[in-house]
């Protein structure tokens, strides 16, 4: 048993080595990725099953690394947050997403786009001004922009974040709470949060087969209704998910069942397919 333990230890350190090296490489390359135009955005539709209509798009960042291929945001966003690069990267993402939304508008697609915000964006008090500038440059009505924030912000200066969000929302921009129910829950703050919607994390959608789990989701949905918040389920992959969720009162779905993340042009084709 001792020998096996030793072997496992060796394998483990080897893997750590590879991961560490990759992380260092990504960290170094991320510095230049923005100037080298290596980022692109894909969009994923949200679908309202009650009205059978689109419910907007979420912008998801991708990094086309010159050697490693497409790197997932779950890998590079934490690095971007550590290094502070997340700030210029998010500015770029906001500009691109607002521009894309205008392009869709011109093609008769009247839907909002949402952009994910790391809590780091609230630290210098720049967001309100940025958003005003980005919307103005894109010529986009604020109602077409939505921001997705996460629960982890409760670790920061909550009052300051609430204040910033209130001002942004006064412009007409929507705010939603992403990954709801996974982090250190902010249920106690929910009535104070200036938000319009809750997004149920994918973990819930994929784990609705016990009565206990369904009871929790049902309670969240009822609470959201009382607080006049929309509820969007993430990670909807099959008919069974849709059936469970609609039974519990959740009607807006996002997931591979409806559409995978795709580029702006592909989205137009996707929409045309769904209008027929
Ligand atoms: P998220 O905001 O929770 O985004 C949803 C993630 O679930 C996306 O992963 C999406 O591709 C994936 N997904 C959607 N439908 C399904 C499904 O049916 N099944 C499964 N298994 N997965 C599904 P992605 O694009 O890899 O993004 C991962 C995370 O990276 C995002 O999670 C978000 O937290 C973060 N992220 C992405 N773009 C940005 C960005 O521009 N800024 C910031 N701060 N974070 C971003
Ligand atoms: Ca999100
Ligand atoms: Ca999410
Ligand atoms: Ca998530």
From TrEMBL:
Parts forming coiled coils: none
Residue intervals of the EAL domain: 23-275
The name this protein goes by in its record: EAL domain-containing protein
The organism of origin for this protein: Paenibacillus terricola
Organism lineage string: Bacteria, Bacillati, Bacillota, Bacilli, Bacillales
Full-protein interval shown: 391 to 666 of 679
């Amino acid at each position: 048993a001792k020998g096996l333990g030793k072997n496992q230890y060796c394998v483990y350190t080897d893997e750590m080595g590879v991961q560490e090296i990759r992380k260092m490489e990504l960290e170094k390359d991320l510095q230049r990725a923005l100037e080298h135009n290596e980022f692109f955005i894909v969009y994923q539709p949200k679908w309202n099953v009650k009205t059978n209509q689109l419910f907007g798009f979420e912008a998801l960042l991708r990094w086309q690394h010159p050697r490693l291929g497409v790197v997932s945001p779950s890998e590079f966003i934490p690095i971007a947050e550590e290094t502070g690069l997340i700030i210029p990267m998010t500015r770029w993402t906001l500009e691109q997403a607002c521009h894309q939304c205008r392009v869709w508008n011109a093609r008769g697609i009247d839907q909002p786009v949402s952009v994910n915000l790391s809590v780091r964006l609230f630290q210098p008090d720049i967001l309100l001004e940025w958003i005003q500038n980005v919307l103005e440059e894109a010529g986009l009505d604020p109602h077409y922009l939505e921001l997705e924030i996460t629960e982890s912000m409760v670790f920061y200066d909550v009052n300051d974040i609430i204040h910033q969000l209130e001002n942004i929302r006064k412009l007409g921009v929507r705010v939603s709470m992403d990954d709801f129910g996974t982090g250190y829950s902010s249920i106690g703050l929910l009535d104070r949060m200036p938000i319009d919607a809750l997004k149920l994390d994918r973990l819930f959608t994929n784990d609705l087969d016990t009565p206990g789990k369904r009871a929790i989701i049902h309670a969240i949905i009822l609470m959201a209704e009382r607080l006049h918040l929309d509820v969007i389920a993430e990670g909807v992959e099959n008919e069974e998910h849709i059936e469970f969720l609609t039974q519990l009162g959740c009607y807006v779905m996002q997931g591979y069942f409806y559409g995978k993340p795709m580029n702006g042009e592909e989205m137009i084709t996707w929409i045309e397919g769904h209008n027929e």
